[in-house]
Design goal:
The chain contains eight helices and nine strands. By secondary structure, the chain is α/β, with parallel strands linked by helices. The longest helix is centred in the C-terminal third of the chain and has 17 residues.
Length: 275
């Protein structure tokens, strides 16, 4: 059965359960799902209630859509995502993006928790993603292409929308929040990188490293969506600091910076809604 059919089946269930028609989509990464609690008139739908959605298995990912209003703007937030390292194919990982697009979402804010590779960064910094490197040795568009979903060879020269980047910079400045900029490199995980791999990532031009986001961006661009990417630098990557890495540190850091993160997202969504 074609992906388009699966998307329609999931969409039908979703539309039966919600009354809000969102303008903007948010993907909330590890430890960042607390943003969904800021939505007014919230309507929550667990992924498992939707056709073809498996259950996420990672701590810090609630696994549900939350529809609501943020500063008066109708949005839908993905509170948690799927990851390649969970054993899903990249088609499964990016399936929610297809559903969001079919729902009418044309602007997507994708967030993640990432390891800092740039030695000028500190844990807790927020980074505007200006570009990415796909180091996952896979691509969600491999296989037959459905022209109804997007073109065979999508353009990624501007994977992250320039206008939305300028909007995010203006929003961060007005909110008094320091916003770093850099290139995100995606790896499969689930093991953290070795110090030697981190040195390689730095030489390749990466400023932050994580285990998500890039497949979602590829599919979003394939569908013709405008994408804004934001990383929370939750820890410094291996070999930069003399301390072990752990997922608990990721959650602790995102909890510490949640006030700034929420303020930034609110300011960005407000400006996106005003466009």
């Amino acid at each position: 059965m074609a992906i388009k059919t699966y998307v329609q089946e999931a969409l039908e269930v979703l539309q039966e359960k919600v009354t809000i028609t969102p303008d903007i989509g948010l993907i909330l990464g590890s430890g960042l799902g607390v943003m969904a609690e800021q939505l007014e008139d919230a309507e929550t739908i667990p992924y498992t209630e939707l056709s073809h959605f498996p259950e996420p298995t990672v701590a810090g990912h609630a696994g549900q859509f939350v529809f609501g209003h943020l500063n008066g703007v109708p949005v839908v937030a993905m509170q948690g995502r799927y990851h390649y390292y969970e054993g899903y194919t990249l088609t499964q990982v990016t399936f929610p993006i297809r559903v969001l697009h079919e729902l009418g979402i044309n602007q997507l804010v994708i967030t993640n928790a990432a390891g800092g590779v740039n030695t000028g960064f500190d844990p807790g910094d927020l980074m505007l993603m200006t570009d990415h490197i796909n180091w996952m040795n896979d691509n969600p568009l491999i296989g037959p292409n459905d022209e109804k979903l997007g073109v065979r060879f999508p353009e990624l020269a501007e994977a992250y929308d320039k206008d939305l980047q300028q909007l995010a910079k203006a929003a961060s400045a007005s909110a008094g929040i320091d916003l770093r900029e850099g290139v995100y490199i995606a790896v499969t995980g689930p093991s953290y990188e070795t110090p030697a791999e981190v040195k390689m990532i730095r030489k390749l031009g990466g400023d932050a490293v994580g285990m998500s986001t890039v497949p979602e961006v590829i599919v979003a661009k394939h569908a013709g969506m405008k994408v804004l990417g934001l990383s929370c630098i939750s820890n410094m990557a291996a070999g930069i600091l003399d301390q072990p890495l752990s997922h608990s540190e990721v959650i602790e850091t995102t909890e510490r910076v949640k006030t700034d993160f929420q303020a930034l997202i609110k300011a960005i969504v407000q400006r996106m809604g005003d466009k």
